[in-house]
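User: For documentation purposes, I need each entry recorded in a consistent format: the amino acid sequence on its own, followed directly by the corresponding structure tokens. There are two entries in this batch. Please keep commentary to a minimum and don't merge the entries.

Assistant: Recorded as requested. Entry 1:
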Amino acid sequence: MKVVFFAAALIFSAATSNVGAQSPTPTTTPIASPSTSPTPEMGTSISSGPDWKLPIGPRPALDLSKTQNTYTRPDATTRFKRYVNGVVGPMALAKQVVGAGYGTWRNSPEEWGGQWEGFGKRLASGFGKNLIKQSITYGLDEALKLDSHYYRSEKKDVGSKIKNALLSPVTARNSKGKRVIGVPRLVGGYTASIVAAEAWYPGRYDWKDGAKSATYSLGISAAYNLFKEFVWKK
């Protein structure tokens, strides 16, 4: 009987150990920690789209080739031809004829009389004044390296044309094309009128009348320039 109980105990013990060996050991699944992605730095694009980047470096130089002055100082031959045309050219002689005719119509100066005799005196006076003016202007232009010749405005707007026409009688261009005070033209114009008033005009005229006449001539030149800017574009 004891043998039976002993054998049963052995069988029960073996069965118990076998069941314990077959039962699975619980495993612990690690909890995934949230991924720590790096914080985007300044200037880094977060979106998945194309990476737009501003160009880094010095800005390209501004092209000033279209805004540079295109003036070229005329050569000596051209400058001398302009001087000769200013004295005895067709336009110069036409101006003297018109001026003498206007003075004869007004009978000014009245001491010179009217009709053809007065016309001839006024024509000779105008020619003499113009010869002095053009000679002084040309001489000072050459000495000071200036250009007193009139040039039409390169800009096409009305304001620029008017400005160019009004400034040209009292300005000149230096060797670089920059507009400067027109000393040759001013000296030539005022000297010619003052010499005429003192030298061959009637005695009641003096240098003040000559200066006044030169000032009037500047206004006439400005009006003529406006005519060339807007009407006569030859």
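Entry 2:
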Amino acid sequence: MLPRWVWDYIRTMNNGVHGHYYEIRGWITDVISQRYPFKPSISDIVSPCPTKRDVWLRRVHGTRIDHGTLAIGRIIHRVFMEGFKHGYRGLDIERVYGLKNRFLRNELRSCNGLLNYKTLSKVFDHGYMHGYIAYIESIPISVEPSIPGSLIGLSDIIKPDFMTGFIPIELTTSTDRVYLDLKTIGLTGYALAIEAWTGNPVDYGVLIQIRLRNCDVNYRVIRIGDSLRKKFIELRDNIARMISLGEEPEKPSKCPEYCPYYEVCGAGL
């Protein structure tokens, strides 16, 4: 599913070593174990608010948002996955064409003008291409596998978009540096959960970045070292403590405009 150069790059970074030495691994329970009753999800970990007030609104007040960047991300994710599914089954592109058109027309009706057919078509084709490459090369891919998260203090089940071998892979449409950093911490959570579950070291994750302006695809190979692992634990514990102890977070001094809670929270107004 990933281009050959990505695998070559990972192999080069490994330098022939299987499993780098890191102080923090998913199976080292005294380091990674849960410290508060509340168990965050990966969505909580990667939420864009600097103070995690969006998590507070969602978890404590039950505030649900279903528009803007959240809606766009969900639609892009669904369209990519649909294309991938057909490609991974080895379906001929001509056969897929009719299925693709019907699916995209339905998606257009539900996206309220947020996206156009041309964009969705390119995203579908990217998904198909990734799936077909995996099919041709007989690469085993797990699509949204259920991984136990409670072993590392997260919600009971967490689901990366893909997993090939023990490498978690996530889709994103963001180009914001701060949010991409959060996504790498989310990948770290998946890696630690896979380690805790399987006992195998997971030193890398991959972000597939779909840039909507021109619908091209970028690949970010993330080395999941101790620095990211410590950041994950710190962020997980901050969120878990906030919800468990009822510590309402302050409004941030500045909100990212792409935060789905931008208008609801009031901090950005």
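Summary note for entry 2:
The two ends are 42 Å apart (CA to CA).
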